[in-house]
């Protein structure tokens, strides 16, 4: 592995050579770990793995909640336990039902089917399916780990501000523990671009430093609040970009798709509600990585409640063009299975959008080239963060939001994972890997999916009725599941030991 340094050109966009020191204060044995190759890393993890005894599940969750609320009390007055109720819950269930419905299809066919389905709502209402608590209980989707777990790493991030433990719940004896090589990567909490591999992208980042080519506001974040100020250039840009929405209709529709956030270059320093990265960059949520199924592999969950609409974490890695990924040869499939696309070559709307802005002509030209015939991906395979462990689901609880800061090159994109429903403690995080993944991936998840949720399209879901549900009945099931989870949570929270 090569070593080198990173130059921080703009906040959280690093240009450098893979293998450099991470941009945070790392603790513990980061250096020997990062210098080891894949097999060496697995060896280090295997050596340090040990059984640990946990508190009984309910008690553990109550303790975590208490700690979390105390921590929030110190840093602000957020009301983090706003559950979805009433009309808001109905609207959310309808939105989720449409998403799950579309997850059945690989292509635009889904949209046509959705239109037909919407036309049949009245008819569908007459065909309500029977769903008792007993039928729905297997789909509550809350993982209950054993009280004895193998702790593989106390903190895979090596950053004490963002501690994330890794557990394996599959093995009875330490000698039998296998550390899959997918766990052997270097942790990064920001995206970076390799100057040698992506010179054009680096050129764009350098040009974006010219004041004509970046966007920032002068709001002070106290008397003038960005999200209340119609003239805030960042907020205006955010609204315009949200209006662009989904690209070329192959992705399911989503509330959040594209946006623009305030940053450290602004008067508000990005400490405002027009910054979807505000919470993710505070590493607010106590996350945990666990492995309980050898097929799905590692997954991510949180021991505290997260309300719908919360931006939880950023997906980090190396920004690479598809052509560069193609040059990986036999490793291509592995990398692409972990990577997320952050720019689209067929995005004419986006090209028209930035060409109308007041950027310098040369910069617009560079941007146009970067968004024509090229697509950039964030590849977390060698350098990544906890986002790379999030699994696919046909009923996901996260949505990926594409947020730009400072300027509009593909290197200015952050992929933010936002909760699209209330997420109860120890529910595995998931998002829909999307139609492309289903087609490209070696083991198409269309057949293979093990998310195990009620509308899962995988072979494991034997409930054919649930697989074919219309959106009306799906929405009813979603509401009922939400209520069951909420009731169980409230019972647990109120219980005294
Ligand atoms: C981005 S990785 C997720 C992290 C991975 N689980 C690990 O252990 O490194 C994607 C891979 O996880 C597995 N996976 C994710 N979601 C799955 C699902 N719903 N069913 C089966 N396998 C899944 C598949 O092997 C997939 O190629």
Automatic annotation (TrEMBL):
SET domain mapped to chain residues: 285-434
UniProt cross-references to SUPFAM superfamilies, sorted A to Z: SET domain
InterPro entries: Class_V-like_SAM-MTase (IPR053105), SET_dom (IPR001214), SET_dom_sf (IPR046341)
Pfam families the record matches: SET (PF00856)
PANTHER family: HISTONE-LYSINE N-METHYLTRANSFERASE SET-6, SET DOMAIN-CONTAINING PROTEIN
Protein's UniProt name: SET domain-containing protein
């Amino acid at each position: 592995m090569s070593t080198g340094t990173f130059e921080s050109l703009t906040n959280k966009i690093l240009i450098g050579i893979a293998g450099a020191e991470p941009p945070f204060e790392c603790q513990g044995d980061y250096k020997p770990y990062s210098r080891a190759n894949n097999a060496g890393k697995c060896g280090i993890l295997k050596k340090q793995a040990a059984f640990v005894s946990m508190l009984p599940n309910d008690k553990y969750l109550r303790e975590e909640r208490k700690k979390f609320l105390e921590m929030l009390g110190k840093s602000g007055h957020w009301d983090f336990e706003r559950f979805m109720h009433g009309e808001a819950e109905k609207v959310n269930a309808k939105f989720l039902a449409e998403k799950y419905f579309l997850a059945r299809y690989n292509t635009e066919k889904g949209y046509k089917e959705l239109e037909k389905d919407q036309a049949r709502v009245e008819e569908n209402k007459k065909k309500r399916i029977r769903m008792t608590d007993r039928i729905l209980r297997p789909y509550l989707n809350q993982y209950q780990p054993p009280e004895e777990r193998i702790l593989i790493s106390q903190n895979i991030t090596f950053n004490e501000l963002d501690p994330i433990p890794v557990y394996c719940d599959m093995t009875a004896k330490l000698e039998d523990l296998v550390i899959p090589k997918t766990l052997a990567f270097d942790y990064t909490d920001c995206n970076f671009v390799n100057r040698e591999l992506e010179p054009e992208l680096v050129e764009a980042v350098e040009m974006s430093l010219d004041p004509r080519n970046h966007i920032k506001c002068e709001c002070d974040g106290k008397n003038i609040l960005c999200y209340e100020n119609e003239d805030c250039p960042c907020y205006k840009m955010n609204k315009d970009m949200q209006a662009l929405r989904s690209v070329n209709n192959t992705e399911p529709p989503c509330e959040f798709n594209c946006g623009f956030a305030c940053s450290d270059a602004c008067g508000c320093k990005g400490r405002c509600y027009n910054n979807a990265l505000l919470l993710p960059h505070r590493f607010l949520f106590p996350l945990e990585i666990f492995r309980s199924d050898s097929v799905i592999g590692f997954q991510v969950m949180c021991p505290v409640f997260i309300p719908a609409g919360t931006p939880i974490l950023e997906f980090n890695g190396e920004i690479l063009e598809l052509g560069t990924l193609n040059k990986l040869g036999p490793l291509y499939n592995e990398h692409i299975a972990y990577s997320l696309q952050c720019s689209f070559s067929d995005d004419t709307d986006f090209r028209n959008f930035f060409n109308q802005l007041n950027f310098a002509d040369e910069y617009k030209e560079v941007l146009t080239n970067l968004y024509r015939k090229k697509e950039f991906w964030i590849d977390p395979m060698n350098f990544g963060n906890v986002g790379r462990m999030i699994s696919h689901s046909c009923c996901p609880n996260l949505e990926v939001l594409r947020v730009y800061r400072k300027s509009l090159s593909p290197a200015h994109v952050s992929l933010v994972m936002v909760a699209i429903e209330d997420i109860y403690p120890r529910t595995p995080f998931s998002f829909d890997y999307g139609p492309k993944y289903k087609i490209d991936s070696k083991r198409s998840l269309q057949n293979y999916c093990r998310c195990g949720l009620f509308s899962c399209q995988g072979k494991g879901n034997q409930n054919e009725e649930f697989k074919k549900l219309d959106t009306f009945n799906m929405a009813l099931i979603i509401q009922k599941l939400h209520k069951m989870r909420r009731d169980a949570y409230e019972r647990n929270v109120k219980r005294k030991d």
